[in-house]
Write a structure and sequence with these properties.
The structure is a single chain. Strands 5, 6, 13, 14 and 15 form a five-stranded antiparallel sheet that branches. A four-stranded antiparallel sheet has the order 2-3-1-4, with helices on one face. The protein is of the alpha+beta class and about 700 residues long. The chain is built from 21 helices and 15 strands. Helix 4 runs antiparallel to helix 20 and helix 5 packs antiparallel against helix 6.
Length: about 700
């Protein structure tokens, strides 16, 4: 701003919009009951570039009037009046984007709610600041017009730099004038070129990995070990300690936490939580180090080692999960194993696994119906009696000093081995006479699943995996699985599949984003139509929306970033931001045409007048996004694709709108006048004249 305006006072006046808007946003957040969390802080950080836009436009227009030699008070009044409609339009366009999406449902809605409304709060305060504080300070603090000082130390250094930048601005405006003249001569070719750029961006978008959350570089992950069911706790502990030594031998490892067994009594499982040293102290990121651990644990293949992410959304679930659901366990296991075999060769997944573990030893009591009927014994009575003998029952409680203790009745510890004492166990019949268990039932030694999982009144097995960093992403894997079930894997009757966890959230994300985009476009159109009192003019302004999207797609493709919830938030942000430049151009063009300037000449003059504020607001937005795009630490690096998408969209929308909007304006203005004449001819009949 300092180089564009060449004035320290103007820079200070414009910069005051930041603290005013941020502090005002905190007040509105408190009234709404919001907390300071990751999403609200992210909203405020993204808003930094937006908050100063309105003040830039107002201050630049006032500064231009002062440069002409007008009195500061008159310049502040007239300059603010000229751009007031444009400033209101740009702010309401952003609010129209984030207002509706703040009320989306589901997990995605929880991400968007406080994020979207916080941006709306900050933008509302910035609009009030731009229309009140900025004109007031411009009138009484900015001073009168004066040239750039070229004498002394300041003039010999900063002054010369400002003069050089002014010459650059003048040259840029002259070049842009020539570009506008060419654009107005060949508008069809310009529009066709913009269309081609957008179509090619869709091809680039098809190559961008799509997922719910990108690869995490938090310096944390876990390693799971899974021995055959029936493995003793001691054996599992000894193996886990050997693996722990292998993991700890790496200098990148800071701490590990080992858990043997789980809360369901399965002693054949072990899990390591691994924390790496800070990113500045290691040469590899988390994903690369996970590949190193996979290679080191290959000698322990009998324990089925699985290196996996610490899931941030799915409550302990791995990033990719798909359930095979049905009533017949054998059928769903067969289908699950077929899918697992194919996914093991899929390049987009790492360490695919299935949660079904056969081979858990079981001792079953098989009641013979015929013999049981002869002895008057029911299977219900057999089950209840055996449960009492082995697990016990609580017929009474013992009370002492106001406290109660359960009295559990069961066999002694050395007598509860049903397999050993099967022939010596008795059960009651209907007449409460004891009958030997061996007379009505047979002992059966078999194996069964370690766990039985149920969903929607049916059983299911789950196939889970991690996503390959830089691979096809969640969307690509889900699409491939759908094709597998359509052509390669035949689902038996009554068997179906369902994506869960982050895969389910990704489906919800896609539908929510489509809804958000549709609502945003509709509300932007309604806002612009009401401001300009025209159903046609908003189409000129909204032409820039696909141009912003194409820049985001190109940026993600070239940087190798994924299109996930963060970058999708950035793309939605572009819907409101990208229309700013178009509003400035169209608003100024219409003002000049109302003053009697011919349309082509008005377009050229508006382009030259609004080039400086357009570049200033764009550079301010890019500067605000740079910290997000760079990623200064492990946490912020998870959102670099958001900054990349926004910066790419800003660059494309700015430079393309400078030529596409003028090229389209002539066509749309002609259509506007033609439609007005048609409507008037329909309403006013010749006989009424």
């Amino acid at each position: 701003m300092f180089f564009f305006l060449g004035s320290g006072r103007s820079t200070l006046i414009t910069g005051l919009a930041l603290p005013n808007s941020l502090l005002g946003a905190f007040i509105l957040m408190s009234l709404a009951g919001f907390s300071i969390n990751v999403m609200t802080l992210l909203a405020l950080s993204l808003s930094v570039g937006l908050l100063i836009d309105d003040a830039i436009v107002v201050r630049e227009n006032i500064f231009r009037h002062i440069e002409r030699g007008e009195d500061p008070i008159k310049a502040a009044s007239q300059g603010t009046k000229e751009v007031m409609l444009a400033v209101i339009g740009t702010t309401l366009a952003v609010i129209a984007v984030f207002g509706p999406i703040a009320f989306l449902s589901g997990v995605v809605g929880q991400f968007f709610k406080q994020f979207g409304l916080t941006i709306c709060f900050a933008m509302a305060i910035s609009l009030a600041d731009a229309l009140t504080v900025a004109p007031m300070l411009s009138a009484y603090f900015a001073g009168k017009s004066h040239g750039i000082k070229t004498t002394g130390v300041w003039g010999g250094t900063v002054g010369k730099a400002l003069q050089a930048f002014n010459r650059f601005q003048d040259g840029l405006e002259n070049r842009y004038e020539k570009i506008l003249i060419f654009t107005l001569k060949k508008p069809r070719q310009v529009l066709m070129g913009a269309t081609l750029i957008f179509v090619l961006s869709l091809l680039a978008a098809a190559k961008v990995p799509k997922t719910f959350l990108g690869a995490q570089d938090m310096g944390e992950f876990s390693v799971g070990l899974d021995m055959p069911p029936g493995t003793s706790l001691q054996t599992m502990t000894e193996l886990a300690l050997k693996v722990e030594k292998v993991i700890h031998a790496n200098p990148e490892v800071k701490t590990t936490t080992l858990t043997v067994g789980n809360d369901q009594g399965e002693a054949n499982l072990a899990n390591f939580f691994i924390e790496l040293v800070p990113v500045k102290q290691r040469k590899v990121n988390t994903s690369q180090f996970k590949d190193v651990i996979r290679e080191q644990l290959k000698p322990y293949e009998e324990a089925n080692p699985t290196v996996k992410d610490v899931d941030m959304v799915g409550i302990g679930m791995r990033p990719f999960n798909v359930n095979i659901i049905g009533n017949d366990l054998n059928q769903i296991v067969e289908v699950g194993n077929q899918l697992l075999a194919k996914l093991k060769a899929h390049p987009g997944l790492k360490d695919p696994d299935i949660n079904f573990r056969p081979g858990k030893p079981e001792f079953q009591v098989a009641v013979d119906k015929g013999r049981a009927e002869r002895f008057g014994v029911s299977s219900t009575m057999v089950g209840a009696e055996l449960r009492t003998l082995i697990e016990g029952s609580v017929p009474a409680v013992f009370r002492e000093r106001g406290r109660e203790y359960d009295v559990r009745v069961r066999l002694q510890d050395d007598q509860r081995d049903l397999k050993q004492y099967f022939n010596e166990t008795f059960v009651p019949n209907m007449n409460f006479r004891l009958v030997k268990l061996s007379r009505v039932a047979d002992p059966v030694e078999t194996t069964g699943p370690s766990t039985i999982s149920r969903q929607d009144r049916g059983r299911y097995v789950q196939i889970m995996a991690d996503l390959t960093p830089g691979g096809v992403g969640m969307g690509g894997v889900m699409s491939d699985i759908r094709k597998m079930f359509e052509s390669e894997i035949q689902l038996p009757p009554g068997v179906r599949y369902a994506f869960v966890g982050q895969a389910e959230n990704f489906q919800e994300l896609v539908s929510s984003v489509v809804t958000a985009v549709i609502l945003s476009v509709i509300f932007i159109y309604l806002v612009l139509a009401s401001l300009y009192e025209s159903f046609v003019t908003p189409f000129t302004i909204m032409l820039v929306l696909p141009l912003a999207a194409c820049g985001a797609f190109y940026a993600l493709f070239m940087s190798g970033q994924a299109l996930d919830i963060n970058s999708m938030i950035g793309c939605i942000l572009l819907l409101g931001v990208a229309s700013k430049n178009s509003i400035l151009l169209v608003d100024c063009t219409q003002q000049l045409m109302e003053e009697g300037v011919p349309r082509e000449q008005a377009i050229i003059q508006a382009g030259k007048l609004r080039l400086r504020p357009i570049l200033m607001t764009t550079f301010a937005l890019i500067a605000g996004m740079l910290p997000v795009a760079i990623g200064l630490n492990e946490a912020s690096r998870q959102r670099t694709n958001m900054g990349v998408a926004i910066i790419g969209g800003l660059i494309s929308s700015t430079f393309l709108s400078l030529v596409v909007v003028p090229a389209a304006y002539a066509y749309i203005d002609r259509f506007k006048k033609w439609s007005q004449m048609k409507i008037q001819s329909w309403i006013v009949k010749p006989s009424d004249v």
